Amino acid sequence: MVAPKGACGLPVVATVAGLTRHLADARAQGASVGLVPTMGALHAGHLSLIARAVAECDVVAVSIFVNPLQFGDADDLAHYPRALDTDLDLAATAGATVAFVPAVEEMYPDGPGDMTTTVSVRDLGDRWEGASRPGHFDGVATVVAKLFAMAGPCRAYFGEKDFQQLAVVSRLARDLSFPVEVVGCPTVREPDGLARSSRNARLSPEERAAAAVLPRALRAGFDAMVEGEYRPAMVESRMVQVVEREPLARLDYAALVRAVDLSPAASLLDGGPFRLLVAARVGPVRLIDNLDPGEDLPAELAAGVPAQERGA
Ligand code: PAF
After folding, report:
1. How far apart are CA 24 and CA 149, in angstroms?
2. Residue having the nearest C-alpha atom to atom 5 of ligand 1
3. Domain 198-305 is of which CATH architecture?
4. Sheet holding 10-13, edge to edge
5. Fewer CB within 10 Å: C terminus or N terminus of the chain?
6. What is the pTM of this model?
């Protein structure tokens, strides 16, 4: 059943059968389909994914589902921001043509805890975020595989902000032969460099200011590489120093990895592409960010790192 909802008039589908039928009908009429999976609390990062999908596809489905399977921490799930009416307005304004908003029982009829078939992306899903949040990527991979199965042939849009997630879903689409082209889209940043994230809404003003330490740490790692540092441990220690100087931040990891499989880089002399990763807790929120050191530095990150943070 496709029902327009709220002031925006965006058609909203609540059932798996409804979504599958809606997108199959669109394809039968020759339309190309774009899928933007989200957990709601839409911000500029999501809107950039929708805009890209709108530019490349005739029909754009935005899914809004806070997936319990990917939360190890009940408190994190309980506090995850929810704003459905605003989300529908934002998605409609960005050009989405349908929203998929299922209940938990629709996605997991036996309950998320009783799923007997789940998807696990070995190695890639076990490192970094996977190590810090056991089971997280199994939850992401499982719900994304379900969304891919429902949507059918399409392009699916994910942000580079969650770089490991992008790698995991790209891998699962390939390994399981989903007829889905996974498209990675650049991170959208605040003027001080902080990556847009739904979790930023939970930061106090002091914590919000402190959170800019993540992009500063990435910038410091990038600067070290530009200065000719080829030892990953030294690049990482520059990033660590920056985070450790911020009293409100608690570092989880700062790493220089091979972009292809996110394994730790042995030496920069081995050749890239590489990726800088950082994760830290700021107040009640765990934040992550990453940077491609091989591309032009995003304008927000080019602003500079104070001299003492550069190890000068
Ligand atoms: O990035 C997210 O919002 C979620 O992990 C996703 C991809 C929608 C799966 O629940």
Report:
1. 12
2. 140
3. 2-Layer Sandwich (3.30)
4. 2-5, 10-13, 98-100, 59-64, 33-38, 154-159, 180-185
5. C
6. 0.94
Read off the pLDDT of residues 120-134 as tens digits, 9 standing for 90 and up: 999 999 999 999 999
Kindly list the distances between the CA atom of residue 235 and the CA atoms of 89, 116, 204, 213, 298, in Å, as whole numbers in the listed order: 43, 42, 30, 16, 19
- State yes or no: is 46 an active-site residue: yes
Per-residue pLDDT tens for 197-207? 999 999 999 99
- Summarize pLDDT for 16-31 with one digit per residue, the tens: 999 999 999 999 999 9
Distance CA 164, CA 192 (A): 23
User: In whole angstroms, what is the distance from residue 258 CA to residue 214 CA?
Assistant: 20
Which of 143, 166, 187 should be mutated for ligand 1, with most atoms under 8 A from CB? Answer: 143
230 C-alpha vs ligand 1 centroid, how far in Å? Answer: 34
| Closest ligand 1 atom number to CA of residue 162 | 1
Question: Hey, where are the domains in the chain?
Answer: 11-185, 198-305
Ligand 1 pocket, Cβ-based, cut-off 6 angstroms: 37-39, 67, 70, 140, 143-144, 162, 165
